[in-house]
Amino acid sequence: PAGRLPPLSGRVYGRRWLVLLLFSLLSFAQGLVWNTWGPIQNSARLAFGFSGWDIALLVFWGPIGFAPCFFFMWLMDKKGLRVTVLLTSSLMVLGAGLRCVPVSDLEIRKKLIHGGQLLNGLAGPTVMNAAPFLSTTWFSPDERATATAIASLLNSLGSAAAFLVGPLVVPPPNGTASLVSQSNTQHIKDRIEAMLYAEFGMVSLIFSAALAYFPSRPPFPPSVAAASQRLSYRRSFCRLLSNFRFLMIALAYAIPLGVFSGWSGVLDLILTPIHVSQVDAGWIGFWSIVGGCVVGIAMARFADFIRGMLKFILLLLLSGATLASTWFTLTCLTTVTHLPLTTATLYTSCILLGIFLNSSVPIFFELFVETVYPVPEGISCGVVTFLSNVFMGVLLFFLTFYHTEFSWFNWCLPGSCLLSLLLILCFRESYDRLYLDVVVSV
User: Fold this and answer.
1) What function does this protein fulfil (predicted)?
2) Which of 4, 70, 211, 328 could form a disulfide with 349 if both were Cys (CB 3.0 to 4.6 A apart)?
3) Cβ–Cβ under 8 Å, residues 65 and 392
4) Shared domain check, 269 and 374
5) Is position 324 within any domain?
């Protein structure tokens, strides 16, 4: 009849791409700001008097920022995307602004920079967990995996961009201590501050755009699943903790991704004993993240075209990660295995490992949501990312005691990938949300 509304599965809006763009830019900026100091640590030590402990703490504010993860999951579930994104972006603006406060006392300045990094770290739970919630709220079933991949992987791309932006803007200190003049130190400090102001301007612009336009939800839901009632916050946790299949894939995600994140963070330390420079280690990290983003989006698009293939895609990616990590670990034991240890083999094995693991993230997220539906997307993905950060923290804790020899750390990689592969092999997949969209809408 005239005036009849279109079916639920057809209610998509062109503005969904604008919403995805704004969220992805926020995610990109958070990763960029978080990784500001690692690529320019030598220059930062000279300009601001940072110690090695300071540099390590500036990186650790990211995982520490996941402490209130469950609050942000509750906020997303109760108040929706707009309130959560505006709170997150305001924390990032405040954090980026604190880093720019021009005080002459270096001790106060260092405290302000640390405070700014912590506030930026508090934005991590939203930018890393909200992607499946956004894709379900705004996108049709045949676009959800792609939207999840774009929104979730842009954060990693931002941290990779810092490897380019930092060294491009900030010059390194002179190699000889006697050549480090006052004017050279001041020049380096000025360039760092220019970069901090630029990042503050970028974050402020994204916040202004989100404040002007970032709706909580579309006028009509794009699918049956988006319109359906979800479990309460308390019941969701009870459902997750009692669901053995969810716990299986949660461990399959958290263990290798947590180990890989910790391993990537100290990659220059691991490669130094085999005579790989810090510059090469940085490029290896950059290309593994960029490759993971490209392959991850391609895999997600494939999953949208051919539904019900998430387990198969994960088996392929984890098999590749297991082989690549084993290759790297055996190559580092060149005195035992006699495998060729060249820059090309290290680049290839590390980059392949990064591609396989980074690109698995959005596929895992979609599988989590399908497995535990009707648990809200932000809660299920928040639990697993929190668990991943716990594994990363435990691994780095052990590293503080066993940091003279890294072969045990390298063997953790293939071991965690193989364990994840076995868990996925034993996992019985189900597509409860997809079933609702396809069958009920018909």
Assistant:
1) Mediates H(+)-dependent pyridoxine transport.
2) 328
3) no
4) yes
5) yes
Q: Is 244 in the same domain as 392? A: yes
CATH code, domain with 84: 1.20.1250.20
Classify residue 224: in a domain, yes or no. no
**Confidence category of residue 177, pLDDT binned at 50, 70, 90:** very low
* Crossing angle of helices 106-121 and 41-48, rounded to 10°: 140
DSSP state of 374: T
Question: Cα–Cα–Cα angle for 71, 217, 239, nearest 5°?
Answer: 45
Report residue 310 as tokens. Answer: 């998430």
In a domain, 227, yes or no: no
Distance between CA atoms of residues 363 and 301, nearest Å: 10
pTM of the model as a whole: 0.84
Q: Enumerate residues 6+ apart whose C-beta is below 8 A from 314.
A: 252, 360, 363, 364, 367, 424
Residue 225 lies in a domain: no
Read off φ and ψ for residue 409, nearest 5 degrees.
-65, -40
DSSP 86-112: HHHHHHHHHHHHHTT---S-HHHHHHH
Q: Are 126 and 76 in contact (CB under 8 A)?
A: yes
Instruction: Note whether 364 and 249 are within 8 A (CB).
Output: yes
* Whole-number Å distance between alpha carbons of 181 and 179: 6
Q: Output the CA torsion 42→163→86→201 (10° steps).
A: 70
Give the distance from CA 229 to its chain's centroid: 29
Domain that holds residue 82: 14-173+182-219
CB 366 within 8 Å of CB 384: no
Find the DSSP H helices in 334-376: 334-337, 343-358, 360-372
Residues 148 and 243 grouped into a single domain: no
- As for how many domains the chain has, the answer is 2
pLDDT in tens, 13-55: 788 999 999 999 999 999 999 988 878 878 888 888 888 788 7
Closest Cα to residue 307, out of 172, 146, 190? 146
CA distance 313 to 304: 12
- Token digits of residue 420: 């994840």
For the segment 260-310, what is each residue's pLDDT rounded down to a tens digit? 887 776 666 677 666 666 677 778 878 888 888 888 898 888 888 877 788
